[in-house]
Design brief:
The chain contains 14 helices and 12 strands. By secondary structure, it is an alpha+beta fold. The strands form 2 sheets. It has a 10-stranded antiparallel beta sheet with strand order 3-4-5-6-1-8-12-11-10-9. The chain is elongated and about 85 Å long.
């Protein structure tokens, strides 16, 4: 079953039963100069944005609208409660079942939370080191977040994030949401996220949604999306990291990664230099000469590289990094229950 952290839906404005327009910011309609549209931003934790337009109303909301049930995320099991909670917090009313029937999706962030056997940094560091795809750019934050950004322009550019959910949940940005919970609820939600890593793909715009949900009609109706059998998160992760995982499945690359795990901060750059030159000491000599390194220094450096190469060739231990990366791939590829 698919789960989402954030969804943006749109439905006909005529389905709004009542609206307290005094709580909205009014601005001129782009289509009709004699009409106003209305915007309400961040009215409560869980509602990100509401826009009442000439013909359609758009609501962007997150799983935080479920309050204590936030860890269950947005799915077929929770969507009615999410819409009912939106209706309660919304400065107006709308029929939940009718909106569920007619709403189509403009944005969806598919999400999967899972527990791993090691700290998140043990997965983030080797994955960042092996990432070689030309279609995405990798951005990391400390040892807490890895974000793969598609090398494209426009608002529908793909994002895929892997992050330590426990640390993200504890940040000040989530303080307003935590304040909506009772003492026991806070403990339950915090305990759930205590050992969780989150994988999340941000599919912004109809074009991306149609690309990654080919099994549903192109209108991308909310109910169709929630019942889709596609798994964009797994397929996108596989696409982005295909070259990285091909590298660790190569015996030579796996051995190099295993040996790199044993090195100190001082030796790691030398090993990278050695690897870059194909573990060929003659090429190392030529490069040192090209860099105008003094002859005496060249001799000392060659001995260091020769010793490092000998240690590498004798190394046969499996790499903890390879094991960690394979565990991560298995967790993301496994269908969410």
């Amino acid at each position: 079953m698919l789960r989402f952290d954030t969804i943006k839906i749109a439905f006909p404005t005529l389905f709004l039963e009542t609206v307290n327009y005094s709580t909205f910011t009014a601005f001129p309609s782009r289509k009709h100069v004699d009409r106003l549209n209305y915007c309400l931003a961040n009215p409560c934790p869980g509602i990100i944005y509401i826009r009442i337009g000439d013909t359609e109303t758009a609501i962007e909301f997150s799983a935080k609208i479920l309050k204590a049930e936030y860890p269950q995320l947005l799915s077929t099991n929770t969507i009615r409660k999410a819409l009912a909670n939106i209706r309660t917090a919304f400065p107006g009313t709308f029929p939940v079942e009718e909106v569920l029937r007619v709403a189509h999706v403009l944005k969806a962030h598919q999400t999967q939370d899972f527990a791993l056997t090691r700290p998140f940094a043990d997965y983030a560091s080797p994955l960042a080191g092996l990432h070689v795809s030309r279609d995405y750019r990798l951005v990391s934050y400390k040892d807490e977040t890895l974000t793969f950004l598609q090398n494209a322009t426009g608002r529908d550019r793909e994002f895929l994030k892997l992050y330590d959910k426990a640390k993200e949940y504890a940040r000040p940005a989530n303080a307003a949401y935590r304040a909506t919970l009772g003492a026991a609820e806070k403990q339950t939600v915090a305990a759930y996220y205590g050992d969780k890593v989150r994988a999340e793909t941000e599919l912004n715009g109809k074009r991306k949604l149609r690309q990654y949900f080919p099994d549903i009609p192109t209108a991308i109706m909310l109910t169709d999306l929630l019942n889709s059998t596609s798994n964009p998160l797994a397929s996108q992760f596989a696409e982005i990291t295909s070259q990285a995982y091909a590298a660790i499945d190569s015996p030579a690359s796996a051995r190099a990664l295993a040996f790199a795990d044993t090195l100190s901060h001082k030796d790691a750059p030398q090993f990278s230099f050695l690897k870059e030159h194909g573990f060929d000491l003659e090429k190392i000599d030529a490069r040192l000469k090209a860099l105008n390194v003094a002859k005496a220094t060249q001799c000392r450096e060659r001995k260091k590289y020769a010793a490092l190469l000998a240690s590498y060739l004798a190394h046969e231990t499996d790499s903890p990094s390879v094991e960690a990366l394979r565990e991560l791939k298995a967790a993301i590829s496994a269908p969410a229950l």
